């Protein structure tokens, strides 16, 4: 039953997303940006031109030159690797925004469509319900992020081989960040979003809270852990452990504060 | 099967349910009548363990309320609930909706599908199972909600306004389904405004307006609430008849209106004696009628007196 309950809401969320074209842009624009930005940069940046021609390029080259992790590469490749690595932050931002926004509606939208009471009347425990809603909020966001990451890797490899004659593939830190840290950051944003959803009396209020507070807080988290995690495997492991601990604390807090009665009776 | 003991629920200063006590045996159907805001839904939510009573307690299907969270979860698995509004996901099909809730009740998939097919077929919805719920009428959604309330075969079922807003045909189908559940021995609590429905389906009726104003079988509730009323129509107005009737034992009140006497008696057995006495005194009698108090009379009197 546990697995069934966990995946029930995920299935519902996926069907809901498939049937609601209005939410597609949110799930398409960010991934497209994350895939296209590094590929387009690699395709059009004049790697072999004198840096003095473009002040921005000059600044990037200076940054790449100072980075000890890139010191072993020739100048053009160094710049390319710097751009690919730094745009990897988009894959941390993506699940934060998508799952944070989705989770902010997780409870309040059920209230609005009057499905909350029938759900609360089932024998599902608070913990299972929260876990299922969490999975439903984070699952699609993470899948979209990973698909975008795969497309990004392919695009970067193809364009880098064409332009630089070498295939740029992601390093261990990048992979860890995208495969582990990104979902964990998404979970953190979703848990904060769910808390907001539990307290909101209507969907508009939940969307406002998500836009003004949940997503910015998630982005601050990404800002704090993303940069070091994308540069170093060790930093990535430490960041993942810290964010996982934060997720655990947030989940327990949500579980303690999940009051069926309060949620049922605080109607608008 | 259900025993409520002094249930009280306050929201801030407002007492929504005030010392409500009643008990139902297994297989009994209880209709809770009351105006909007009378505390019917709150009472049901307390009995389900969804909200905590401010005072009092209850036992439902052997589970104490309030109690530990695990007991409440067990209780929710043993009871069915039809909420006031159906509450389905509009973008999912009827079948997808029922499968979703069925999984939450832990019903194994093959059994769940079999039960859903059986119920939807009997309610005439099987052919529409793959249509999105958004395309369903209110009556169809209500039937779907009924299936959700019973597909886990609960011992106790709570129906909150099951026929509200339905067309007569749909309402009849819903009533038939409730009647079949009653025949199957389920214990049912029916919150309704529909007095005819309560009289038709319920073994016991409770009139609720924060407090339980009346409780008992619908046919005896009228007699218990107030003494029977008998109308005797004489062949001609007669002051003397008034004197004859007033001095009789068991006659509580007599109100004349021309040849008509409205006689309130202690019980229906007094009426033949009244008729015999009038005839013996020489008064011609054209008509005698015992006014059976309907459930509506009881309800309006109870609610009116409380207001």
Short précis:
The complex is a heterodimer of chains A (268) and B (307). Chain A is mostly helical and 268 residues long. Chain A has helices at 2-19, 24-44, 55-66, 75-86, 90-104, 108-112, 116-120, 126-164, 172-199, 203-231, 233-257, 260-265.
What is the N-to-C succession of helices and strands of chain B? EEEHEEHEHHHEHEHEEHEHEEHEH
How many discrete structural domains of chain A? Answer: 1
Largest β-sheet summary of chain B: 6 strands, mixed
Low-confidence stretches of chain B: none
Rough outline of chain A? elongated
Count every helix of chain B, treating DSSP H or I runs of 4 or more residues as helices. Answer: 11
How many distinct helices of chain A? 12
| Number of extended strands of chain A | 0
Helix content of chain B: 25-40%
Structural class of chain A: mainly alpha
Give the overall silhouette of chain B: elongated
Beta-strand portion of chain A reads: under 5%
Average pLDDT, all residues of chain B: 87
Overall description:
The complex is a heterodimer of chains A (268) and B (307). Chain A has one domain (2-265). Helix content of chain A is 80%, strand content 0%. Chain A is built from twelve helices and no strands. The radius of gyration of chain A is 21 Å and the shape is elongated. Chain A starts with a helix and ends with a helix. The mean pLDDT of chain A is 86. By secondary structure, chain B is α/β, with parallel strands linked by helices. Chain B folds into two domains: 2-223, 3-Layer(aba) Sandwich (Rossmann fold), CATH 3.40.50.300; 229-291, Alpha-Beta Plaits (2-Layer Sandwich), CATH 3.30.70.2470. In chain B, strands 6-7-8-3-9-10 form a six-stranded mixed β-sheet, sandwiched between helices. Chain B has a four-stranded antiparallel β-sheet with strand order 2-1-4-5. A four-stranded antiparallel β-sheet of chain B has the order 12-13-11-14, covered by helices on one side. In chain B, strand 12 and strand 13 form a beta hairpin. In chain B, helix 3 (94-104) packs across helix 4 (109-122) and helix 8 (218-225) crosses helix 11. The radius of gyration of chain B is 24 Å and the shape is elongated. The two termini of chain B are 32 Å apart.
């Amino acid at each position: 039953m546990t697995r069934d309950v966990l995946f029930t809401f995920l299935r519902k969320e996926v069907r809901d997303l498939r049937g609601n074209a209005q939410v597609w842009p949110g799930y398409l624009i960010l991934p497209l940006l994350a895939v296209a930005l590094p590929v387009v940069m690699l395709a059009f940046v004049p790697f072999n031109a004198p840096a003095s021609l473009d002040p921005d390029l000059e600044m990037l080259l200076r940054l790449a030159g100072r980075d000890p992790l890139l010191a072993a590469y020739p100048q053009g490749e160094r710049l390319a690797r710097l751009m690919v690595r730094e745009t990897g932050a988009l894959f941390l931002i993506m699940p934060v925004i998508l799952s944070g926004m989705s989770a902010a509606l997780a409870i309040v939208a059920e209230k609005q469509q009057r499905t909350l009471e029938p759900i609360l009347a089932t024998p599902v425990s608070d913990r299972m319900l929260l876990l299922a809603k969490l999975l439903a909020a984070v699952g699609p966001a993470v899948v979209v992020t990973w698909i975008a990451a795969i497309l990004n890797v392919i695009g970067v490899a193809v364009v880098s081989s064409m332009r630089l004659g070498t295939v740029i593939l992601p390093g261990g830190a990048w992979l860890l960040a995208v495969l582990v840290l990104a979902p964990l950051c998404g979970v953190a944003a979703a848990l904060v979003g769910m808390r907001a959803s539990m307290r909101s009396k209507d969907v508009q209020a939940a969307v406002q809270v998500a836009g003004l507070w949940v997503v910015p807080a998630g982005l601050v988290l990404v800002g704090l852990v993303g940069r070091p995690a994308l540069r170093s495997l060790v930093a990535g492991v430490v960041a993942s452990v810290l964010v996982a601990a934060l997720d655990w604390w947030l989940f327990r807090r949500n579980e303690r504060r999940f009051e069926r009665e309060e949620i049922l009776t605080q109607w608008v | 099967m259900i025993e409520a003991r002094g249930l009280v629920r306050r929201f801030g200063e407002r007492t929504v349910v005030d010392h409500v006590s009643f008990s139902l045996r297994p297989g009994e159907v209880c209709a809770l009548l009351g105006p909007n805001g009378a505390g019917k839904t709150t009472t049901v939510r307390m009995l389900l363990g969804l909200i905590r009573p401010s005072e009092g307690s209850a036992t439902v299907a052997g589970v104490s309320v309030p109690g530990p969270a695990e007991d409440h979860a067990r209780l929710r698995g043993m009871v069915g609930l039809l909420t006031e509004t159906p509450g389905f996901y509009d973008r999912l099909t009827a079948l997808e909706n029922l499968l979703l809730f069925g999984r939450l009740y832990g019903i194994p998939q093959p059994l769940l599908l079999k039960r859903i097919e059986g119920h939807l077929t009997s309610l005439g919805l099987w052919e529409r199972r793959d249509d999105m719920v958004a395309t369903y009428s209110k009556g169809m959604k209500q039937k779907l909600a009924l299936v959700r309330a019973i597909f886990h075969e609960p011992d106790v079922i709570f129906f909150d306004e099951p026929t509200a807003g339905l067309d007569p045909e749909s309402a009849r189908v819903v009533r038939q389904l409730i009647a079949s559940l009653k025949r199957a021995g389920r214990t049912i609590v029916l919150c309704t405004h529909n007095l005819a429905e309560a009289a038709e389906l319920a073994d016991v009726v409770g009139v609720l307006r924060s407090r339980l104003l009346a409780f008992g079988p619908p046919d005896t509730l009228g007699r218990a609430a107030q003494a029977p009323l008998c109308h005797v129509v004489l062949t001609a107005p007669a002051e003397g008849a008034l004197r004859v009737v007033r001095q009789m034992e068991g006659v509580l009140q007599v109100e004349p209106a021309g040849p008509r006497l409205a006689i309130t008696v202690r019980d229906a057995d007094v009426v033949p004696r009244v008729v015999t006495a009038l005839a013996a005194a020489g008064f011609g009698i054209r008509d005698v009628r015992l006014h059976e108090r309907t459930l509506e009379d009881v309800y309006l009197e109870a609610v009116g007196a409380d207001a």
